[in-house]
Every structure is written in C-alpha cells, then in structure tokens.
Amino acid sequence: MADNAPETSDDPGPVSRRQRAVGLVATALLALAGLFTLHDFLPALVWAVVIAIGLWPLYHRLAVRWPKHRRGLLPALVIFAILLVFVLPLMMIGFPVFKDAHEAAGWIEKARVSGIAPPPFLQHLPDGAHLTQLWQANLAQPGAISGFASRAMQGSVLEIGRRFGAAALHRLVLVGFMMLALFFLLRDADSVAEQLRIASRRAVGPSGERVALQVVRSVQGTVNGLVLVGLAEGLVMGVAYWIAGVPHAALFGLLTALLAMVPFGAALAIAAAALALLIGDQFVAAMVIAGLGFVVTFVADHFARPVLIGGATRLPFLWVLLGILGGVETWGLVGLFVGPALLSALLLLWREYVAAKEGPLNDPSTAS
Predict the structure, then answer these.
(1) Domain that holds residue 128
(2) 272-306 residue pLDDT tens
(3) Looking at the 3D structure of the chain, how many domains does it have?
C-alpha cells in the first residue's frame, strides 16, 4: 500500500524565468512600499548611518578594549556624548535668543515710535556723510519703519509661532528617532555589516563590497573634513572674538563652528561678529576680525578640507566641492556627507570601466 501512495516532496523544483520575474517585481513593489511608509523617517535613518560610520573607528577601538559593554553601555555612552557635544551648544544659543526676544520686541517698538539713530561706524565707511544722510532720511525719523514693524509685530505672528512650534516638535521627534536608530546600529554593527557584505556580494559580486568600503571611507573622510575642521575654525575664531571684544564671544565662536561645517557658512558668522563690532563703533577690531576670518576660512577650505576629504574619497577638490554643494541642494544637510560618497563611488566605477587608473575596483593583473 505504501508503494501505491503518491509521492510528495517539499522541493518546489527549478524556478522558471516567469517566477523569477514575478518575484523581482514583487520584491521591488514591497521595497517601494516600505520606503514610502518610512519616507518621513528616512533622513533620520540616513543621519544615523552617517554618524555611525563617522564614529566607527573610535567606537571599534573602545569596543575592542571593553568587549563586555559593546552591546549596552558603550552605545549608550556614545548617544550621551553626542547629546553633550551638539545639543547643549544649541541650547546655549537658543536660551539667550529666547531670553532676549522680549528686549528685541521692545527695541522694535521703540524704533517704530522714535526712529533709529545712525550707527557711528557709518562715518568710517567711504562716502560716510552721504550714507548718514540717507539713514537720517529713511530710518531715523519717527514712524519711518512703522510699516515694517507692524508686519513684524502683528498679523501672522501667532501663525508663525504655531508653525515654528510644530516644526520644532517634528524635528525633535526625528532627532529622538535618529538617536534610537544610532544606538541599535552601534550595538549590532558587526551583524549589520556582515549582512550588507553578503547582500552586496550576491547582488553584484566582489566589486560591490569594494564600492561599499570606499563609500564608508568617503563618509569618514567627509565627517573629519567638515566636522573636525569646522570645530577648529570655531575655536580659533572664538578666541579671536574674545580678544577683539565681540559681545557674547563664546556664542559667536560656537555659531562659527556649527556654520563652518557647511561650505562658506563660517563667513556668515564672521560677518555677524564684525557687524556687532561695527555697531559698537569698533571699526579697527571689526576689520581685524573680518581679515582673520578670511584667512582662517581660506586655509580651511583650500588646504585642510581637500586633504582630509579628497584623500579619503580620492576625488579632486572641484569634485569634492561639487559633491558637497550638490548633495546639500538635493538631500539637505545630510547631503554634506552623502554627496561626496556618491561621487567617490561613481568615480571608482568609472576607473574600473575604462581601466585608466589603478583603484580598489581596477586590478592591474586582470587588465587586458
């Protein structure tokens, strides 16, 4: 009777071309549906990946030294350190701004009623007498800026406040999600890296793993070039602000460090510090700060950053700059790191394709 029973097997047999095509389409649809579901959180996830890659060399050394804590205490300490380094400075900037908001509103009201007296630094500028006359005619008269002040103090202020509060709450949620994702990325970094390595080899062969490694090196070089150089610029200029007598020198130095991470951003903070000195009738000090700021940013943007970023990404300076600016234009702030990494990967693929220059994807022994 057993001999007459129908044979059954769990083996589905070979996969047909049609089944493979249907499987690929279904996989693509599932992937698109997943991305659409998470699209509001994708920037936070990308930031978590970028920060994890940038911190990985330091984190790996700590994990080797204290292996028992690599899945608990060490990731938690990294999150705490990030909050300490980045969130506290932002709070230091934000609290004085909110504290002075009432004084600013009072100053606007006073200016609306009485006008704004011309600042003394106008006399030091070329054609200063004419500029002072124009200021007297347009801004120093009572009621001259009433239209501007009315728009600033009335009408849409509540609506702007609501939008700002909603946007701030949304950003706070994204930052919290990013920190949570970063914790799990660091905790399970070895497992995630191994899975990505297997997936890249199955998808495109050994070259995919090499491209991924080059992208990782590019992100690390970009983090070093932007973050570390930006912090150094802020430190140097912060000391200069303090010596020159810039009001709130520490806050201006911190603002310079944060803006210096964006190409040409430090110039805005330096110009604001110089303007604060001009308003205080410290013309010479303002010129010194402007000149020193130009030198510091020139050295940072044309020497330090190209060495750190270009050396890791293997990109010429022009392509580094285009990658940063194009990345910011396309992806927002996270494009600072994504842009150069993408261009670096494309350049490596091009080198392999044309076999014109040795690189991680161009093995001279296999060239024809």
Answers:
(1) 39-187
(2) 888 888 877 788 888 899 999 999 988 887 778 77
(3) 2
Q: Quick check: is 24 in a domain?
A: no
Residues 139 and 145 sit within 8 Å (Cβ to Cβ): yes
| DSSP annotation string for 221-264 | HHHIIIIIHHHHHHHHHHHHHHHHT-TTHHHHHHHHHHHHTSTT
Give yes or no: residues 179 and 211 share one domain. no
Same domain, 276 and 355: yes
Angle separating helix axes 189-204 and 206-223, nearest 10 degrees: 130
H-type helices in the chain, by residue range? 17-37, 42-65, 73-82, 88-99, 101-114, 128-138, 146-153, 157-187, 189-204, 206-223, 229-244, 249-260, 266-279, 283-299, 305, 311-313, 317-331, 335-354
- Convert the pLDDT of each residue in 259-272 to its tens digit: 888 777 888 889 88
> Residue 359 phi/psi, 5° resolution?
-165, 180
Are 164 and 255 in a shared domain? no
